[in-house]
Amino acid sequence: MSSSSPRRLSSLLIALPLMAGCWWFASSFLGGADAWIFSKIGGQSAYLEGSSMPRVEVPTTVEKRTLHPVSVGALELDDEQAGRVFAALPLGPQDFAVILARLQAAGVKTLGISSPLIWQTETGDMSREIFCSALRKIPQAAVGLRGRTAASADFTPVELQNTAIPAENISGDVSGFPSANRALPNGFTDKPDALDIVWAPDWLEDEPLTGRPTTQGSTSFPLFVRWNGEVIPTLPLRLAMMARGIRPEDVKVSPGRELRLGTRRLPLDANGRTRLVEARVQTLDPTVVFGSSPAPLPEAVLVEQPATAAGNPERLGLLARTCSTLLAGESVSYQRGSRLAQDVVYTPAPLQADMVMALKWGGGIGLAALLLLPFFPALLRRGVLLAVPVWVLYRAWICPPQWFSVCGAFLCWAVLCWGVARSSARRRGVFSSRRR
After folding, report:
1. CA-CA distances (angstroms) from residue 144 to 113, 136, 208, 241?
2. How many CA atoms lie within 13 Å of 27's alpha carbon, on the beta-carbon side?
3. Tens of pLDDT along 85-123?
């Protein structure tokens, strides 16, 4: 039996338990040193969750934002509903003027109209003026402009040009937004009366997200439309901007991230939709609204005259819920609280969280190193041992916000160096130095 065999055996019996003890000691008592190392690596003060370092909290001011829901009325005027109130169908501009007058008298301050605005017979200037006059009496009122994407684009309607979001306020890809490049004709197209109306994109041909949305979950009606490359607010967002006094210059759009509506921030998906929160919708019955004793109405109402006789109550409901979410008031309060003194919280890495797993892996690697490295040439052996701390620091640097005991790894490395040096054969060679 070689004389070095007892030395190797004793090195194994001493080094392996000593390495396990070093790992346990560092994990239990050197959490502060590990936190210092991760803070230096990450460039921010680190707190190691589950380590021995004390949890230090500092007083801070916590901002709390509270939403105050706004109820929005939904009034559908399909042929069946309108026929219960009006003797002649389809509705003309004078009929709409009567509707507007009744809503204004009931206290409605914000009104959106989604309608094709197509009359079967030519309407005179007087009937259109009556409609516009009734619309002007409502403080915030907008009418939906229907459009489509044509092979040959038309100029952007002048009524929409001043409502586009400035290009410098848009960051990201807007190709997912519904698009149009030509307005569909209506009873006010190419008439001077159109300039007296606030318009906003509403229903787009061959765009399911605006024409017949199927979602009834937590996603809103699209808030934006690309019209000849410009990003223009749709009817619900336009109403909210008017009600809150927000200009296009005060809106910042980041598709897939967020929408900044004045001081308010809302999540925004790639299709220009937000999450519906605190939406309240009141379905209005035309016979009650236009009855002799009308019930109290919400201050905001959306009126839809569907393009087809069957109607689409799901679309009107989505429009109303979207408007309710956007109109919701937001109050900000500040409360005294506390937060961690550190900037980043690191969770334990799998090997750090499971001590048994750490001992198995660490013991296996340590055993292999103690058995094999003594037979390596001295230069190669030293290179492998010197690479270990470099690898440990590299793992700590590339690791996600997870931590492991760097101090424990270095202590185990020191014990490994001692065990390998004690077990190495004593010989002189090209890659070794003379040992006694």
Report:
1. 6, 15, 16, 15
2. 20
3. 887 777 888 888 988 998 998 889 999 999 888 876 666
Q: SS3 for 257?
A: coil
Share of the chain above pLDDT 90, in %: 34
Question: Strand 264-267 to strand 280-283: parallel, antiparallel, or no bridges (unpaired)?
Answer: unpaired
With CA atoms as reference, report the closest residue to 345 among 401, 395, 398.
Answer: 401
Instruction: Determine if the pTM surpasses 0.70.
Output: no
Residue carrying structure tokens 């589950």:
50
Strands 402-403 and 344-348: parallel
Cα–Cα distances in Å, from 76 out to 9, 309, 311, 313?
A: 89, 11, 8, 7
For residue 378, the surrounding DSSP H or E stretch is helix 378-398
Cα–Cα dist 317/220, whole Å: 10
> Beta strands of 179-299 (E only): which ranges?
179-180, 182-183, 199-204, 224-227, 230-233, 251-254, 258-261, 264-267, 280-283
Chain-centre distance of CA 339, in angstroms? 24
DSSP code for 254: E
- What are the beta bridge partners of residue 65? 332
Question: CA 15 from chain center: how many Å?
Answer: 52
Q: What token pair was written down for 245?
A: 């006094």
